[in-house]
Amino acid sequence: MFSFWANTKTIEKKEEEEKEKKEKKEDEINDIEKTQPQIKLELKDEEDKETIKEEQKQFFDMIGMSPKSIKSDHELDYLVYNDDSEDDDWNENECGEIIQSWSKNKKYRIQKCLWKLKYNRIISLFYLDSLKRKETKWSWRIVEISTITSGLTVANNVQEEPFEDYNTIISISLTILSLGTSLIAAWMKKQGFVEKINEIDKYLVSINSLCEEIEIQLMLLDKDRLPYKEFKDKFLPEITKYVSSNPLIPPREWKDCAKEITLKYPQLIEPDNNEENKLWPWYGDLVQVPGEDDRFIRRPTKFMNHMMRKDKKSRLKSSCCFHVNDPVLTVYK
Fold it and tell me: How confident is the model at residue 73, as a pLDDT?
């Protein structure tokens, strides 16, 4: 009798286990059926992304650009201050007057204007130095030629010739030196060294004063700074004036100045670890580093990468088939 009841319990237990297994299988099948549409959508999205990338690659190949210039989605930077729809806020100051208040976005936009002013200033400064060196060089050449001419004039006043054709040689030499002096003086006048130096000198005095005034205002606390409307009315016309009416510098000289600054004077481009003090266009806009919160940086631009490869070492490596296309992270080598 006991054996019968034991066998009955064993059979019931097996039936319950089989029933549980069957229910688990049904649940797994239901889960698979539920997730199947989602998996299909994910696969379709991946296929669409691959198709778009392939189309982009074909397009850039067609216009002659390298596929390396195409950034993937995770490499795109997020601009920190990219909102143009900010409303004007009006607050009451310590004197009870209603003033237009500052914001981080407004301050950053003024900072971008200051970067352009500083770029014009440093290029004009190096161009002025180049003009002064050229003017000094050729002025000294005229002094040297004039000194030699004076010596030959004294040597021409001899009564007896030391050797045959002495007077003829002296006369020809005096004529050539006089023509050389006249040609150099005429060329210097045509180049307008004096006028250009005076013009750029006045421009640099004005733009330097403007840059320092704006920089001092941005360094102050909001309560100590000029109200935004007053600041805008005072400085925006001056900013527009000195950004748009910079001295006329030939493109070749402009490029030579930018190259000299990049390769020989990195301290002027990146004077410290402060992102605000890095010069544009060597460094771009302020961006947020992907995956790292509360960290904003300014990345080197293509302009800086191009200029950094203009030195003799990079040219030699390029001519020897070395790979020199690695991105430049700092102006200091």
Answer: 41
